[in-house]
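Sequence design from tokenized structure. All designs in this work follow the same two-part layout: the structure record, then the generated sequence. An example of the structure record is given first.
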């Protein structure tokens, strides 16, 4: 069953797919556990779609920002289609969870938002990667280029093995390169990051002015493409 579902997800256009049993979410904070959305959840099916490498080689404001935003509806569409396939094929329940927005939690003073569940932690629990010092998911094949979404299901499927860490020992490039000094190893001050990153141009189009922590990472393109 696991391999059949994974093949369907990849056939729908995802680049990666992994499985995390509900027992792996024991450390999820209250209000952000899969149980808080779907009480009968037994497994979280996690999938991701990768940005093209070329978007890291150009000024980020329009090109990177535009296509990075496009990955959100892309992965959400895959989630919805995969959920239907799981339900129709296995007579199961499958709850797709938006990969980014909408969400409820917002601290206006700190400009801090939180997704319905942490997709990055779900991906780590499903063996799709490890967390980088800049708090981004690092995947062996796709580096930090993945946008991740998840499906909660009552199917009983074993978890995939955890991934090996990818952050290079002693590397602090993302931390020291952050123009807003928003990163502290393993955490990010969203207020500082948001104020430095998001804006609009003269025409009113949304812009992303900074993706430094992504673009300076030596393993941004994956384990086999370590860039000095």
């Amino acid at each position: 069953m696991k391999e059949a579902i994974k093949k369907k997800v990849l056939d729908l256009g995802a680049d990666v797919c992994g499985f995390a049993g509900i027992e792996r979410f024991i450390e999820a904070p209250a209000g952000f556990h899969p149980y808080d959305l779907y009480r009968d959840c037994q497994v979280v099916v996690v999938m991701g779609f990768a940005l093209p490498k070329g978007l890291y080689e150009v000024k980020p404001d329009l090109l990177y920002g535009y296509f990075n935003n496009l990955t959100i509806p892309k992965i959400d569409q895959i989630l919805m289609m995969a959920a239907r396939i799981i339900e129709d094929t296995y007579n199961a329940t499958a709850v797709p969870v938006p990969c980014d927005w909408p969400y409820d939690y917002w601290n206006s003073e700190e400009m801090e938002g939180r997704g319905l569940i942490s997709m990055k932690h779900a991906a780590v629990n499903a063996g799709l990667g490890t967390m980088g010092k800049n708090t981004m998911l690092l995947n062996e094949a796709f580096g930090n280029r993945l946008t991740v979404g998840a499906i909660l299901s009552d199917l009983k499927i074993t978890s995939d093995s955890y991934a090996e860490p990818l952050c290079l020992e002693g590397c602090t490039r993302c931390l020291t390169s952050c123009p807003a000094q928003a990163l502290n190893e393993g955490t990010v001050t969203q207020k500082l990051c948001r104020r430095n990153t998001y804006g609009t141009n003269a025409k009113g189009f949304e812009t992303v002015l900074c993706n430094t922590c992504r673009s300076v990472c030596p393993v941004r393109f994956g384990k086999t493409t370590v860039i000095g």
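The first strand starts at residue 16 and ends at 21. We note this feature because it recurs in several other targets discussed in the main text.
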